[in-house]
Automatic annotation (TrEMBL):
Residues 1-21 form the signal peptide. The lineage of its organism: Eukaryota, Fungi, Dikarya, Ascomycota, Pezizomycotina. This is Peroxidase. It comes from the Eukaryota. Residues 550-579 are annotated as: Disordered.
Amino acid sequence: MRARAPVLAGLLSLAAQTGRADPTWPAATDHMEEIVYQLQGFRGSLFNDIITPCDNEAAGPGRITASEWLRVGFHDMAPHNKYFGTNGVDGSLQFELNDGENTGPGHATTLKFLANYLSSRSSLADLIAAGVYASVRSCGGPVVPLRLGRVDATEGGNGVPQPQNSIGTFISQFDRMGFNATEMIQLVACGHTLGSVHSPEFPEIVPAATGQISFDSSNAVYDNKVVTEYVAGNTTNPLVVGASIAVGRNSDGRIFGSDGNVTIRAMADPTVYRNTCQALLQRMIEVVPAGVTLTPDPIAPYAVKPVGMQLTLNDGAATLLLSGYIRVRTTELPASSITNVVLTWKDRNGGNSCGSSATCSVTATLQGVANGFDDTFGFFPIQATIPVASGISSFTLVLNFNDGTSKSYDNNGNSYPMSDAVILQKPQSCLLQGSGALTVSALVRNDIVGLPVNLGVSYLVPRNTTDGNPVPALTQANITMTAGDCVGQYTFYTASFTIYGGLSYNARLSVTAGSGATAYSDDFIKASDLSGTCGTFSGSATCANVTVSSTSSLPTSTTSSSTSVSATTTTTTTSSTAAPTPTIKTNVGGYVFVSCWTEGTGVRALSEASFAYDSMTLESCMANCTGFDYWATEYGRECYCGNSLASSSAQAPNGDCSMLCAGDPSEFCGAGNRLELYSTTATRTTSATPTPTATLAVKPTVGDYVFVGCQTEATSQRALSEKTYADDSMTLESCAAFCAGFTYFGTEYGRECE
Ligand SMILES: *[C@@H]1O[C@H](CO)[C@@H](O)[C@H](O)[C@H]1NC(C)=O
Ligand SMILES: *[C@@H]1O[C@H](CO)[C@@H](O)[C@H](O)[C@H]1NC(C)=O
Ligand SMILES: *[C@@H]1O[C@H](CO)[C@@H](O)[C@H](O)[C@H]1NC(C)=O
Ligand SMILES: *[C@@H]1O[C@H](CO)[C@@H](O)[C@H](O)[C@H]1NC(C)=O
Ligand SMILES: *[C@@H]1O[C@H](CO)[C@@H](O)[C@H](O)[C@H]1NC(C)=O
Ligand SMILES: *[C@@H]1O[C@H](CO)[C@@H](O)[C@H](O)[C@H]1NC(C)=O
Ligand SMILES: *[C@@H]1O[C@H](CO)[C@@H](O)[C@H](O)[C@H]1NC(C)=O
């Protein structure tokens, strides 16, 4: 990085100010978060390269690039019409460069730089808004909160105020943009602290011999001198004094003085200026067309974030490599105080099986550091070898510190998801950057083979240069992939495509099996990560079927008559000798399975009796709990009994209960913090027996029917299409009676039966 930007004292980054938790990963804003905060150093985006330091003149002498970025934000917003809900920060400036309102080279050079970052997850409009944040911050100004989700326009607008406009025209133009007469003064004062007015664009204002004239005496510092020098009467602002007066183009003078200098004088206080500009510039970049919804919260850097996580099938098809980085924000906590980061993964079915290793975990130590304007980060590289037989579904993280303490991160209680269902296999994929010839190989897990598999290529195509638009068009191609060899539990799919050559390195690749609710994908992979030649996959493995527990695997078809009734789990391969296939037992003695269930908060879900031993089975737990209404097994070897459930315990997906019973591997005995819960079928009288406090539960059986699971409707037709009715007194029993004779029945939306 070049010299660090001046950073005024007393500033904390947004995350530190708000103390907000990390978003749940992955978030739609993750890519922009890296562009904006992970600026320089290891995996740096270099987004601030041409605006840092603040006085950098990337587009030529006298042209302060940071001021041009800030100006692009205003010019893109300015056509907004709040009455019609049209325009706003929408990237339409790319189509407006020749319309006379947007003179000078600064807009085109700014847009050209920002376009390097254009992708399906970073619109030009969001990049323009990020450019406002970055330019102001690079010059020592406030952190402008950055909400995201802007959508790019496909045509231009107009309405940028011009220096010769009357004050009445200015007031009505700013009103149309959503700013009243006070805010107009503030916004102009917040914009005209950086940069200069240039003779080529405004010869009536700046004589050719002069070249350019600055708005204030510190034109490369985000400070309020544009205000204080105006108030003191010694300003050099060419839109207040000098040649502009005679030709009626002294627009800043007219605007600042329009309320008798009341607003501008208040901004002579540096704190008032800073706070006002932080709020007004946020408002400016949040002016968007009607129908565009920005994220509720501004982005902030994650405390801990997985970046570039990728699965690859190793040669021989016996193991997967999980690679990537855990990025730790080290702003308040030096990277040197972190001993290591431990990543612990869950197998494909949410359990802890990972072959011969005792623990499914890897340890990473610091490899590189990066920084943004206000933050520093350490990167901990992950290289985990995962047996294909057990696979991966998620992971959690622990940071260990030199002082012996540690901190766990579980993605806000969700674990960090990592699916092994579809993998873009980089070693067997390649891109010739010159010609744009692309070949992509993907691996699809055999339990979902049969879903259509598509390669999505999102790439940039230059516009017709005669239009003068420097921003390429974001283009999407969708190519059907063809099935090839089966290797163990995966099947290869391939597709070829020719990307427009010149910008092929900027393309992003996604492989998707299925669509809608049943889509599995490996997304947003940089084409530039691929090598020029496709490697061959060496080592073969017998093609094997895969069975995945219901929570880890979405149904491939809700109408299929072969939909498995039991929530089976674990991975079985046809080549291995048959181990007993564990299933959920719906009935044990006189008890029925209720569901997988969580422990209570600070209290056991079932608290009246407990047992733990290594020969645990469902039957032995039931015997231990004789006389109780409920019993449950947990963590493979624990058993709990009770007549009521703690109110803070709750139903959990059946697949969470993924641990086998220590004394019988054909049965499930819950998991960590998960109870395999059974309930008596004996009729209870509320006077004699406490009513369960956690009341609503899935009924495992209704008449002769057993509960299959919660299923989605089919796409454009009913999942169950033979017979339907709807009624406000709908019960499972009445629907079962209506559907007597059919293999399946289902209830939906509280009052529908099919
Ligand atoms: C503009 O709006 C602000 C905030 O609502 C208000 O304080 C100010 O008085 C308004 N100015 C005018 C001229 O209406
Ligand atoms: C403008 O005048 C103020 C007040 O007299 C003074 O402090 C400041 O240094 C002057 N600025 C310039 C650029 O002359
Ligand atoms: C506002 O300030 C400017 C610059 O100091 C001055 O020329 C002008 O007379 C002031 N206007 C009023 C109404 O005070
Ligand atoms: C580019 O635009 C010009 C003018 O609009 C048109 O004449 C020309 O055919 C276009 N070229 C291409 C390659 O589309
Ligand atoms: C890609 O094409 C396939 C088949 O034509 C279709 O099912 C799928 O929805 C498309 N995907 C996208 C992202 O357009
Ligand atoms: C995989 O399962 C399918 C459907 O149950 C079966 O037809 C096929 O023979 C199995 N394949 C192997 C290799 O066992
Ligand atoms: C609980 O069951 C185990 C296994 O059958 C048995 O060894 C133990 O004695 C039982 N404990 C009680 C108190 O019933």
